Amino acid sequence: MKRLILKNVIITGIIILVACFFTYKIYNRFHTEGSIDYSSSSLDITFHEKSGEKITINKVTPLNDNLGLSSKPYDFSIKNNLTEPVKVTIKLVDDNETIEKDNCIESSIPKEYIKVSIKENNGKNEVYTMSELTDNILLETEIKALDEQNYTVRVWVASEIETTNFDLHYHGKIQIIENDSILARR
User: Computed from CA positions of residues 28, 29, 33, 38, in that sequence, does the dihedral angle turn out positive or negative?
Assistant: First the structure.
């Protein structure tokens, strides 16, 4: 009887260890696939989507702002590794590489119909039309010493668009700039 109990405990233990091992491996694989990191001497930037800093609108689907704010999020974190604050600028710029590769400059959504929002940590969503952004700047901020900030960017087509060409699209990139040095780019 004691042997049977001991045998069952050993088998159950082995099954639990194997399950934990494979769960860890699966989690680690998906976690590392979804993160693309950029680093400088002062900042670490982690994009939490497989697409990294790239943003794409594949199809014109006009949305009002309430629906746009629930569209696909592009999440990223910026961590300050210094013991002093760092000034950071976050921009949304055209992905010229992809536009040139796809030869799609003629089928881009006009900037006055692209809406974009940015939210810092659990703050309020700031909503803009891309055409009203100065130098494509979404946010200029300062990250405190040894602090980490999380950001969410959403991009959608404004409900005011007047087009019958629903094959229009947009290719963009999130750029993180620290002291005039672009960190998030390939």
Answer: positive
How far is the C-alpha of 42 from the C-alpha of 85, rounded, in Å?
10
Closest CA to 109 of 157, 173, 63: 157
pLDDT along the chain (186 residues), means of 10: 87 91 73 63 87 88 91 93 93 91 84 95 93 95 94 93 78 88 59
In order of 30, 74, 112, 138, the CA distances from 49 in angstroms are 11, 7, 26, 19
> Number of C-alpha atoms within 13 angstroms, CB side, residue 68?
26
Strand duo 74-80 + 86-94: pairing: unpaired
Distances from the Cα of 24 to the Cα of 11, 32, 135, angstroms = 20, 12, 44
